[in-house]
């Protein structure tokens, strides 16, 4: 009953779990230890991947056994002990919880609603089982990383290094106790070799604009940080190309256009509002595109003066529109969206993008907040006038007449492709159609 209420009052819940108290063979309460770490001082709603990252970085089952968890059957695919279709035996419960954490949020109740009995002869205390568990942890960490957990390479390598550290302690104890022959087998050897190989593997990053490969992208400046909110596209450490300074969103737009559209091979008329530098230069290379770019304050003679709330072009003029990170600056964004819809041809498409915040339930705006200082405090930048959430943004686009599709490169092409461009698992494009 305590757990069920969260399914009834909250949306997108994968499961509910609670703190577990340790008890001995006789049912006596044991003092807390690393086996039952309390991760919150009060009942907390976690993003699934946030809690999953904690588990992967600490190699701890803070969720519990199946009897301690109330889970959403619709998100459970009927096979316990599987993560993305791969079976795990030693850490089957952890694999199951991680698989479900890919799909929704988790409620953690800080009060103990279950117990974890400690007794002699447990698998967790047998050296061969422990090392076999480490071998499965290695597999799970790698699989989880390729599924969007541990989104930064630093977190990934930290998790692997902790795994290696634990394996080292186990081998050291085995040597001291003369038990090394008990833990040696080819499977464990291959697992440890795989761990070391992944620890020192360097992922190659790539920028399509300068056609350069390098070890890592550069972070964006700290003055853009806004820790109050969790943004859908928040590639702080991989935002900027170190060679040509392309932005993460420019690389995402180009990847989508090259992989999913025929924009570069057919005759199109295109409107680009507040054009990003690298994108603009790239579009101008294509003679098949009749390219119009503009801004409320043009930066050069080749850019048109365009007020997005009153676009001076006839209805049904453009085959494609691109309006990125503009509407959060516009007081009447509904009018701007209607104008973009008006000038788009029937069957035309576009990309309309704004910063999306994941930890708010509705759009936040207040017309009384007018000074740059107050806007920065409320909306993150001196010239922003609102905070968008996903459902609110989509609804406003639909109210203007658009059909809206979401495009996630990590889901379509895999995390390896996303990371190559400095992108993450939550980076989402808002594709509009008329």
From TrEMBL:
Signal peptide: none annotated. One of its GO terms (biological process) is methylation. InterPro entries: Methyltransf_11 (IPR013216), Nucleotide-diphossugar_trans (IPR029044), SAM-dependent_MTases_sf (IPR029063). GO terms for molecular function: S-adenosylmethionine-dependent methyltransferase activity. Residues 303-351 form the Methyltransferase type domain. Keywords: Methyltransferase, Transferase. The keyword Transferase applies. CDD domains: AdoMet_MTases (cd02440). The keyword Repeat does not apply. Pfam families: Methyltransf_11. It comes from the Bacteria. This is Methyltransferase domain-containing protein. It comes from Bacillus wiedmannii.
């Amino acid at each position: 009953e305590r757990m069920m209420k969260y399914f009834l009052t909250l949306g997108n819940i994968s499961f509910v779990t609670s703190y577990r108290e340790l008890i001995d063979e006789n049912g006596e309460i044991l003092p807390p230890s690393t086996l039952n770490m309390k991760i919150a001082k009060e009942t907390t709603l976690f993003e699934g991947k946030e809690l999953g990252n904690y588990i992967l970085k600490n190699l701890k089952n803070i969720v519990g056994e199946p009897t301690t968890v109330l889970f959403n059957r619709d998100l459970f695919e009927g096979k316990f002990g599987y993560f993305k279709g791969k079976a795990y035996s030693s850490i089957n419960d952890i694999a199951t919880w991680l698989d479900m954490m890919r799909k929704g949020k988790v409620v953690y109740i800080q009060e103990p609603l279950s117990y974890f009995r400690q007794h002699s002869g447990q698998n967790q205390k047998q050296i061969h089982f422990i090392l076999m568990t480490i071998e499965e942890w290695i597999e799970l960490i790698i699989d989880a990383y390729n599924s969007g957990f541990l989104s930064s390479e630093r977190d990934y390598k930290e998790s692997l290094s902790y795994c290696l550290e634990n394996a080292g302690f186990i081998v050291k104890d085995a040597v001291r106790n003369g038990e090394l022959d008990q833990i040696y087998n080819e499977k464990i050897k291959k697992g440890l070799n795989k761990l070391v190989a992944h620890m020192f593997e360097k992922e190659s990053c790539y920028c399509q604009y300068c056609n350069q490969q390098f070890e890592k992208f550069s972070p964006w400046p700290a003055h853009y940080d806004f820790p109050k909110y969790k943004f859908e596209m928040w590639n702080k450490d991989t935002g900027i190309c170190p060679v040509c300074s392309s932005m993460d969103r420019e690389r995402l737009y180009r990847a989508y256009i090259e992989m999913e559209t025929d924009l570069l091979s057919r005759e199109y008329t295109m409107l680009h509002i507040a054009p990003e530098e690298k994108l603009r230069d790239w579009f101008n290379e294509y003679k098949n595109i009749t390219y119009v770019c503009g801004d409320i304050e043009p930066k050069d003679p080749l850019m048109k003066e365009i007020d997005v709330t009153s676009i001076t072009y006839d209805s049904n003029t453009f085959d494609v529109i691109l309006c990125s990170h503009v509407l959060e600056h516009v007081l009447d964004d509904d009018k701007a969206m209607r104008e973009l819809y008006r000038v788009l041809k029937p069957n035309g498409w576009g990309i309309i993008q704004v910063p999306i915040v994941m930890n708010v339930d509705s759009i936040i705006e207040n017309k009384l907040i007018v000074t740059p200082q107050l806007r920065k405090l409320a909306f993150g930048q001196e010239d922003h006038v609102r905070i968008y959430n996903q459902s609110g943004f989509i609804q406003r686009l639909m109210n203007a007449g658009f059909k809206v599709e979401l495009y996630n490169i990590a889901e379509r092409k895999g995390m390896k492709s996303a990371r190559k461009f400095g992108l993450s698992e939550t980076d989402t494009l808002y594709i509009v159609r008329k």
